[in-house]
Amino acid sequence: MVAGRSSSSRRDARRRLGGALAVLVAGALVLAGCAGGTAETDAALTVSASVSPSSTPLPTGQSAARAVVPQGEPMTVAADLVAPWSVAVVGETVLVSERDTGDIREIVGDTTRVVGTVPGVVFGGEGGLLGIAADGDDGLFVSATGPDGNRVQRFDVSGAPGSLALGDAETLLDGIPSARTHNGGRIAIGPDGMLYVTTGDANVPDLAQDRDSLAGKILRMTPEGAVPADNPFPDSFVYSLGHRNPQGIAWAEDGTLFASEFGQNTWDELNIITPGANYGWPVVEGQGGGADFVDPVQQWSTAEASPSGIAVIEGTVFIANLRGERVRAVPVADPSTATEYYVGELGRIRDVVAAPDGDLWILTGNTDGRGAGPRDGDDRLLTVAVG
């Protein structure tokens, strides 16, 4: 295990997003005519009774932001991506990670180019280059599978948009248990400025209940790779435990942390994460109703879900679904309910992202070796307005 860089303060995290938005709008207009796999009409469906509400109480101060939903058809921004996994905006540029190539690509007009290849990535199954998150205007946090397990690294990003370059790797944390499946891999900076990382159980379910293991957890660290003094367990990166394979984390306006999680054969989950809480795996899958574990606020059959990335825009949690091939919209004010969009129209959906201008970005996952396989132009990054 490595705890990485030591510095007294973070870089200035100001954002210059005008260029990123201009790139997306221009790319979407150029590619709109090629987006044959996108939705032809709004495809909202009311969720059936298979969605099971939870008795888990909502945090006090629950966000009162208005719920928003997709408006109209998604437009293609970038096409022909290879097993894309995550999206980040660094400075003025939109970056996408590719799981099976190890490449970080930047969107340049109606095409993409390789910014750099993350070194030492071990590919196979669900492992590879996974989540990315911006560190201000000139840095990128990366979650990837290495020869000694999953790891968290930071890279400098230099150059002008259209000619960015990836610097050397700085390892913040390594030795996270890995396997061909159940690697977690989502990474995000929270509203508290801390770095959060989801980890799977690496196909050893009991690790999720072992507080000394980094597997089956949501981890919290400083951007320099140290254990925050206010973490729930002393000298531990563990923020929550009892997770099977969480792949999405996002915060509501009031600071509530939501996380999506793959179940085994019965239930996939949406959870509200609180520090030190235990979410039950492998003792419980879905809503168990016991006093020892926190129930999900919503659960779905695995055929309807396989939830990966999530995003919060105003008062709505948007959830990308792989096997379920849909975007699910969950009101923050009542997370026991949901509405579904683009069911079966885009194929597998790996990630959803809150765009800097308030739109929703959708990242498909049809070239990852699962499902029916790619369609013309896959994989894609798409954009759709919400309101």
UniProtKB/TrEMBL annotation:
Pfam families, per the entry: GSDH
Matching Gene3D superfamilies: TolB, C-terminal domain
Domain Glucose/Sorbosone dehydrogenase intervals: 83-370
InterPro entries: 6-blade_b-propeller_TolB-like (IPR011042), Glc/Sorbosone_DH (IPR012938), Quinoprot_gluc/sorb_DH_b-prop (IPR011041)
Highest taxon above the source species: Bacteria
Lineage: Bacteria, Bacillati, Actinomycetota, Actinomycetes, Micrococcales
Protein name: PQQ-dependent sugar dehydrogenase
PROSITE patterns found in the cross-reference section: PROKAR_LIPOPROTEIN
